[in-house]
Amino acid sequence: MIRQVSIVPTILTNDKKEYRLQTERINAFTRRVQIDVTDGIFAPTETLDVTNIWWPKNWDADVHLMAEKPSDHLDTILKLAPSLCILHAEAQEDLLPIFAQLKERGIKTGVALLPSTYPGNIKPYIDAADHVLIFAGHLGVQGSPADLMQMEKVALIRNMKPEVEIGWDGGANMSNIRALAHADLDVINVGSALSRVENPAEVFQQMVAEIDKSGVVL
To answer: Across the chain, what does the average pLDDT equal?
Structure first.
């Protein structure tokens, strides 16, 4: 039986006006959103930094922080108080003390894995996290193709921590949303397939309908 899968729109931009526009468009049809933030070092592109992001009070905001040293941004994250803060396993510092500080403030913790990262090599982070994000695109870029081979990580993570929330980030669209939804994921983050269309609310509903379909193969 397929899990209940959440489609979560993502925001990634370096422009304040565009950020507000995307926020207003998304707010019309969903309440859970992932906000992507890069430091310009860990990821080659640079977005608005954490001091410039915000969200409506009715949102459950996930902040995906693509930063070499997440601790440099921790004070701001604690003040923003997102529902979930996702940090990269490949960051250049130990994430466990940062996870502890986030949890003390009631913020759920997530760990993201780049395509080259094997889940078994970061078991302490997975054990400590509420959410594991399988990253299958290109850092700091919307619209990159999905590396569907990354779905093999789902079973490995489930075996380590069956109850953890598992998310997917990278290249999700109408052509693959159904396959992703049947891969034992909990969350599918969607970027350009929603942000670059005229009517994102309509496409969002089409995606919801697509993942509910069943058939001979899926």
So the answer is: 94
